[in-house]
Design a protein that fits this description.
Layout: E1 8-13, H1 15-23, E2 27-34, E3 37-48, E4 51-56, H2 60-66, E5 70-78, E6 81-92, H3 96-106, E7 117-122, E8 125-133, H4 134-144, H5 149-166
Antiparallel strand pairs: 1-8, 2-3, 2-5, 3-4, 4-7, 5-6, 6-7, 6-8
Amino acid sequence: MTSESEAQTVERIGRDECMLLLRSRTVGRVGLKRADDIAVLPVFYAVVGDGIVFRTAPGSKLDAAVMKSRVAFEVDNGSPPWSVLLHGYASEIHARSPAAEARSQLGSDWPAGQRERLVRISIDDISGRRLMPVHVLRADKIASGEHGDADERHDRTRADEHERSSHVD
């Protein structure tokens, strides 16, 4: 059973903030279909224009790009907890100018090995969610004077009990 202090609610994050959050990170996960299975693979990435770019070596991620497959891309944070998820089509970057721009944005962080192939994921749809612990929401409501009916009844009951226990006959 989840206690009140562990319970959380979800707040949706708008597109503009999702894009800011994407730009604030460098490691994300690409979700793609591999044969009869689904794979979720970590990548170092950058936001370039209206897409996500990353380096890769021959394998599942490059195969998805060559096939122009629809993929998912996710990035998240633990504290405060949020997640951004997008869907789009993967494609390999061949043109010289977009490749140079992608390389300049990616920097030098990537796993060891030959990873010179560049993949771009279009951002066709994007959504984000922030987990809000109930105790944080309750503190915000108390601070703003927005008590719910159940909260008010609970607070009145506790106050009444305290007043009765403090009277001495």
